[in-house]
Amino acid sequence: MRKPLIAANWKMHMNTGETREFLQAFLPQVEGVTDVEIVIAPPFTSIAEAARLMKDSNVRLAGQNLYWEEKGAFTGEISPLMLTDLGCTYVIIGHSERRQYFGETDETVNRRIRAALAAGLKPILCIGETLQQREAGETFNVLRRQVRDGLNGMEAEDLVIAYEPVWAIGTGKTATPEMAQEAHAFIREELGALYGEKAGSVRILYGGSVKPENVASLMAERDVDGGLVGGASLKPDSFARIVRFREQN
Ligand code: 13P
């Protein structure tokens, strides 16, 4: 059984004060939730404050990125050990915004995933096609390449995949549950080719305009094991409703 995972990607939002306010309102609303794993990825500058407030809670911390070296002369970068030091257990890798604006490639994604695993962090590998690629019928080829190259040379590990169609991110356009299921089933097939039966335990999250209103129908699909939530994770009530998606049925 794959335990659902609902993760907040705060992107470049939420300073320390906002983080504090959010958690003071959010944590009581999800207290006692044990059937869903809850993860929040604050910007680096708010992780320490979030860690302080989330101590002893049922919410886990994630980084939004990392660099693959442990330490050294890499101005502006954050190492896997710095994230574990702050109490992070997960790290988002290869988000489409990093691929689009910061030159991330499948090869650098691969290096980051290896470094994360070596440090004991669970990577959330983000993949997904652009609108142009979807319209050109390239979706499955893109997903296959991102999975195979991103995971190149790796054993089946404690890994999470996030399928985030780029055209659904921040646009209000959600993939239909059927579209998400089709992509997730394809990704699981690809994982099966790489890892055999172990692919059945990898959680595949959907990301792209997940909201309290659409989360339950997405989660009803067989291969949708959770969500990676941007905009709707910035308000405590909205993110808590997403986490408690089972209660909306
Ligand atoms: P939105 O939920 O704002 O569409 O963002 C999705 C996302 O990119 C999560 O990583």
Q: How would you portray this structure in words?
A:
It is a single chain. This protein is an alpha/beta fold and 249 residues long. The chain has a single domain, classed as Aldolase class I (TIM Barrel), CATH 3.20.20.70. 40% of the residues lie in helices and 16% in strands. The protein contains ten helices and eight strands. The protein has an eight-stranded parallel β-barrel, surrounded by five helices. The radius of gyration is 17 Å and the shape is globular. It starts with a strand and ends in a 6-residue tail after the last helix. 40% of the residues are buried.
Task: Give the structure's gist in a few sentences.
The chain is an alpha/beta fold and 249 residues long. It has helices at residues 16-30, 44-54, 80-85, 96-101, 106-118, 131-135, 139-150, 177-195, 215-219, 236-243, and strands at residues 5-9, 37-41, 59-63, 88-93, 122-127, 160-163, 203-207, 226-229. It has a single domain (5-247), classed as Aldolase class I (TIM Barrel, Alpha-Beta Barrel), CATH 3.20.20.70.
